[in-house]
UniProtKB/TrEMBL annotation, chain A:
Pfam families: BPD_transp_1. Belongs to the binding-protein-dependent transport system permease family. InterPro entries: ABC_transp_perm/SBD, MetI-like, MetI-like_sf. It is found in: Cell membrane; Membrane. It comes from Thermomonospora echinospora. This is Osmoprotectant transport system permease protein.
From TrEMBL, chain B:
This is Osmoprotectant transport system permease protein. Gene3D superfamilies: MetI-like. It comes from the Bacteria. It is found in: Cell membrane; Membrane. It is a multi-pass membrane protein. One of its GO terms (cellular component) is plasma membrane. The chain crosses the membrane at residues 36-56, 68-92, 98-118, 147-174, 194-215. Keywords: Membrane, Transmembrane, Transmembrane helix, Transport. The keyword Ligase does not apply. Residues 33-219 form the ABC transmembrane type-1 domain.
Length: 229, 247
């Protein structure tokens, strides 16, 4: 219990709140890396998931379905720390790019699979109605399938963002800035107050992200879709 | 010589040095693997033991479920490294520090899958059991729980695979099973242990996943006859895809 009190005391020290190793700077760094990784992830995975889910005719559609769903569980097996260290050792260390690669690789499956599943789950009757009204493929996708799949797409995005925040924390071990620095540097100095302080900040950030996504979902999911639950 | 092999040959350090693997397979790697198995499977068992009664309770008293679901979904969002660090204050640098958070994640995945599994039992099956004179307890144990197995197993597969990969994060506080190979590799700027660690963890996860699938097949012979309900299949897929989320 004393250790937790020590961590709380850590927050009250003046030097924690200014300079490049201060909490505001580290938090900003962490949010910046996370948003960057998130943007790249969504740019890759969202269009891919939408198109894969939308195309359902042809021999390949069944195979992609199987591959996408099994990639969901296979992706969970990838060890974050191993990928980060390997990426840094094999490329020049200290750069942001080698860290962004595992960051994105680990987050893409969540968005891809949920988007795919969301579009796939749209009732055939709904799609037929859209086609009957004269909509073409892309219109059906963007004006019917996308809004109906929105809750699952947002769930995938939230899972990806949480994953990215966690990976970015661990990336401090290979030299990235952000909140993970307090944990890694604290461990190296045997300074538990700093480690626990960093851990508490990461928890706050992750939980805050959950709430942000709950808010976004209220704004973007159409009331009709939400009511059907 | 192609350009790629030329580059690889010119590197001072090859990606994999087989002699290092041979020298360390016996004790270091085997010991890391043993630790990894303990650290990843104990939480699965602990989580299952708690999740079954909790899930059954949530399926019965539906008003409790949203609150439990909100709690588990927030818990699932907290990064493992943060939980490990906080727990160090209470459990020190012991196996429990890694096992407790992973058991909590397992619980977060399994409670919804137990509830979904029980809800996937078709109403007419339940009515048939009642008509045959089954009381609530016997109906649960003999009819509802067996039919929920595929969905619960889907949750168990997700939890096991993620635990196996998450254990390696523990190496940041010195308790990481095969993850120790990663920190060793970084300290010596030497890729072989890292590649060995990644391959071993992925292989362990895939083998465990297949074993669980096999167990599921043995436990549910009726599924092979193709009589598994559509509702149950949907719930299984949902667990595999969206586990940890709140839907």
């Amino acid at each position: 219990m004393n250790a937790i009190l020590g961590a709380l005391e850590w927050f009250t020290r003046a030097q924690q709140w200014s300079g490049p190793d201060g909490i505001p700077a580290r938090l900003l760094e962490h949010v910046w890396y996370s948003l960057l990784g998130f943007a790249i992830t969504v740019l890759i995975a969202l269009p891919a998931g939408l198109v894969l889910g939308h195309v359902r005719r042809g021999r390949l559609a069944g195979l992609t379905g199987f591959l996408v769903t099994s990639s969901a569980n296979a992706a969970r097996a990838l060890p974050t720390l191993g990928l980060l260290i390997l990426a840094v050792i094999l490329t020049s260390a200290g750069d942001l790019v080698p860290i962004l690669i595992p960051l994105v690789v680990l987050a893409v499956p969540a968005v891809l699979v949920n988007t795919y599943a969301g579009v796939r789950q749209v009732e055939p009757g709904l799609r037929d109605a859209a086609e009957g009204m004269g909509m073409r493929g892309p219109q059906v996708l963007l004006r019917v399938e996308l809004p109906v799949a929105m809750p699952l797409i947002l769930l995938g995005m939230r899972t990806a963002m949480i994953q990215i925040i966690s990976t970015a924390t661990i990336a401090a071990y290979v030299g990235l800035g952000g909140l993970g620095r307090y944990i890694v540097d604290g461990y190296a100095r045997q300074d538990y107050d700093s480690m626990a302080g960093g851990a508490i900040l990461v928890i706050v950030l992750a939980v805050a992200t959950q709430f942000v996504f709950a808010g976004v979902s209220r704004l973007t999911v159409s009331p009709g879709v939400r009511a059907r639950g | 010589m192609s350009p790629l092999t030329a580059v690889l040959a010119s590197e001072a350090e090859p990606l994999i040095r087989w002699d290092w693997i041979e020298r360390n397979l016996g004790d270091d790697i085997a010991e890391a693997l043993r630790e990894h198995l303990i650290l990843s499977f104990t939480p699965v068992l602990l989580g299952l033991v708690v999740a079954l009664p909790l899930g059954i309770a949530c399926a019965r008293w539906r008003r409790v479920y949203p609150a439990v679901l909100a709690a588990t979904s927030v818990l699932y969002a907290v990064p493992a490294i943060a939980l490990f660090v906080v727990l160090v204050a209470f459990t020190g640098l012991t196996y429990s520090t890694v096992i407790i958070p992973l058991a909590a994640y397992t619980l977060s995945v399994l409670v919804p899958s137990v509830v979904d599994g029980l809800h996937s039992v078709p109403a007419h099956v339940r009515q048939a059991a009642v008509a045959m004179g089954f009381g609530p307890l016997r109906r649960l144990v003999r009819v509802e729980l067996p039919l929920a197995i595929p969905v619960v197993m889907a949750g168990l597969r997700v939890a096991t695979v993620s635990n196996i990969s998450l254990v390696s994060v523990g190496s940041l506080i010195g308790i990481g099973g095969l993850g120790e190979l990663f920190t060793t590799g970084l300290k010596r700027d030497f890729p072989t242990p890292i590649v060995v660690g990644i391959v071993a963890i992925i292989a362990l996860a895939l083998v465990s996943d297949m074993l669980l699938l096999l167990i599921q097949r043995l436990l549910t012979p009726w599924e092979r006859a193709g009589s598994g309900g559509r509702k149950a299949r949907r719930a299984q897929e949902k667990t595999l895809v969206t586990a940890g989320g709140e839907r």
